[in-house]
Design a protein that fits this description.
three-stranded antiparallel β-sheet; S-adenosyl-L-methionine; single chain; cytoplasm; metal-binding; alpha/beta; nine-stranded mixed β-sheet; rSAM_sf; about 35% helix; 2 domains; about 350 residues; TIM Barrel; iron
Length: about 350
């Protein structure tokens, strides 16, 4: 298989954030070594099973959970196995939390080959961090980013969350000022969502939905010369994210790490102990051609990728042309593009309905 993406899931966290619905654990640290051994077994198996070619992995993204809760030495076998499969200029990203991204951890990950670091900052206000259930303080976030910069990381990103009851236009402006004072090249700004099974499920009042907040954030970021390349992302694009939106195949390695190869979506065990016992197991969902087209439309129109006109049926083409005539889509070189990502769902639904 030529040209693929790789996602590696680390399901351990120091604490569970109040909004988090990801597959993560705060009470099973004794399983760390067993988990990484199982993850390594799955990686070796999948590279062979899916016939991944040497020098064909374009990007690696280590997410979680919290990858910075795992010491670099436990990643070493993973990177040794990956080495012949990585392209020379592969983008290798790891997420990290400010409170666990020590100088030793950051240096160790850099020596393994990680060249992009994404910090879960979420806010530069301590009261908002407390509301969200974050384990760090503002000062720790600033120090972590500056520490990574001092160690030679040239590609640094942070996440921020907005649409909470504590957000005001003035505070959002302060958040962005503090963000842009740091040596970052990328910013993800996510609207708080209330997910089932999270502590916030029983506290819906913590969310303060406002389309104006999203517009303000976009306007303030672009005023600083940064471009929006996806509904929640700004700055120098993350190649791994772009690969998802381009609908490239990707391997998902780890407990609950979903992958997609061709028309098959692959689901390993989500329960940690089950995954450790059977890392090769995958539940398979076969995607119908029309489902894949719909996914390409939703992904393409929420990002700068756009959609290729050739994938659209005649009725979809008629609707896309209508949106173009109304100025809600642009068209060039056989592709449709969405000029306003905040309307991406409505535009996509109109095309496929």
């Amino acid at each position: 298989m030529q040209h693929t993406l790789l996602y590696i899931h680390i399901p351990f966290c120091d604490s569970k954030c109040h909004y988090c619905s990801f597959n993560s654990y705060v009470d099973k640290f004794e399983l760390k070594e067993a988990y990484m051994k199982a993850l390594h077994r799955q990686l070796r198996h999948d590279l062979e099973h899916y016939a991944v070619s040497p020098n064909s992995i374009e990007t690696v993204f280590i997410g979680g959970g919290t990858p910075s809760t795992m010491p670099p030495e436990l990643y070493e076998p993973i990177f040794e196995t990956l080495e012949p499969f990585l392209q020379a200029e592969a983008e290798i990203t790891s997420e990290a939390n400010p409170n666990s991204a020590s100088e030793m951890w950051l240096g160790g990950m850099k020596s393994l080959g990680v060249n992009r670091m994404s910090f879960g900052v979420q806010s530069f206000f301590d009261d908002k961090l407390k509301l969200l259930g974050r384990a760090h303080k503002t000062g720790e976030a600033v120090a972590a980013v500056e520490r990574a910069d001092a160690l030679g990381y040239t590609r640094l990103s942070i996440d921020l969350i907005y649409a909470t009851i504590l957000d005001t236009p003035e505070r959002i402006e302060t958040e962005l000022e503090r963000a842009f004072a740091l040596p970052i090249e990328h910013l993800s700004a996510y609207e708080l969502t209330i997910e089932e099974g999270t502590p916030f499920q029983h506290r819906p009042e913590v969310r303060k939905e406002s389309i104006e907040q999203a517009k303000t954030i976009r306007r303030q970021i672009e005023r600083r010369g940064w471009k929006q390349y996806e509904i929640s992302n700004f700055g120098t694009p993350c190649r791994h994210n772009l690969g998802y939106w381009e609908y490239k195949p990707y391997l998902g390695i780890g407990s609950g790490a979903v992958g997609r190869i061709g028309n098959e979506r692959l689901y390993p065990h989500r329960i940690l102990e089950h995954y450790i016992e059977a890392p090769f197991f995958k539940e398979t969902e076969t995607l119908a051609p029309d489902e894949m087209v719909e996914e390409k439309i939703f992904l393409g129109l929420r990002s700068v990728i756009g959609i290729d006109e050739s994938i659209l049926g005649e009725r979809m083409k008629e609707r896309a042309r209508l949106l173009r005539d109304e100025g809600k889509l642009t068209y060039r070189d056989g592709r449709y593009y969405n000029p306003d990502f905040l309307l991406s769902d409505e535009v996509s639904l109109f095309i496929i309905s």
